[in-house]
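DATA SHEET
Item: assembly model
Revision: 1
Owner: S.N.
Input lines:
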Amino acid sequence: MLEARIEQASVLKRVIEAIKDLVPDCNFDCNDTGIALQAMDNSHVALVAMLLRADGFSPYRCDRNIALGINLNSLTKVLRCAQNEDMITLKADDAPDSLNLVFENTENERISEYDIKLMDIDQEHLGIPDTEYSASITLPTAEFQRICRDLSQLSESVAIEATKEGVKFSCSGDIGNGSVTLRTHQNVDKPELSTKVDLTEPVNLTFSLKYLVNFCKASSLSQTVTLSLSNEVPLLVEYKMDNGYVRFYLAPKIDE
Amino acid sequence: GKQQTTISSFFTPK
C-alpha cells in the first residue's frame, strides 16, 4: 500500500496546478523512490515528467508499484478543500479504486478526509534519452513567463537562439515582429535573478508559444527555470523543487 | 513555413 505525508499542502497544489491543463488525466506511478508521472498532452506535442521524491514525504511507504489513475480536475477540487499549511496524507491500497486524502491542521486540530475515485488510464511510457544539450539557459521564472506572454501577443511561434553572449527570443506575426534578448549576467546579491548560459555550440530552434505559456503555470514552483536545447530535439523546460522536479518537453517546429 | 513535430518522433515507447 501507499502512505505518503507531505508537510505543506501548497507543494502538491502548485504541482497539480502546473500540469492539469496540459495532461488532465494521468497515472501517478508510486514506488519506493517516490511519486512520478509521465504523460503527453492530447496532441502529442508536449510531454510532462514529474517527480516527487520519497524523501520529500515523511513518512513515506510504498512497498510495490502502484499506478493511481487520476483526473486532475477532480484532484484540484479536493485539494481546494485543503489549506496551504495543512499536512496532507495520501493513502491507497495495492490495487486501488480510490485515493484517500487526509488534511490535518495542527494548529486548530482540524482533520478532513476525502476519497477520490481512480480511473484506468492506458498510458504508454516513453524512453527519454539522456541528452548532452548544446545549450542550457537558466533564467528567472518570472522573466521567462513575461517573455512568453509578451511574444505570444504577436505570434504563435518563437525562435530561441542561444549564443555564448546570451539568449534571444524572437517572433514575427501579422502585426509585426518582436524580440527579447537576455545577456548573460550574474546578480551577486540576488543570484536567482541571474541569467546563465552554458553552451557547447550555438542553437537556434523554433517552438509553439501556446505550449510555453502553458508551461509557465509551473512558475510558482521555483524562482529559476532551465531551458535545455539541442538542434533537432525537443526543448526541455525544467522547474526544480527541493525534493523533485516538473519537466516539460516540447517538440520543435522544423522547416517543411 | 515551419511544421510542428510530435514528441513521439523523438522519444520511443519503453
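QC remark: The two ends of chain B are 33 Å apart (CA to CA).
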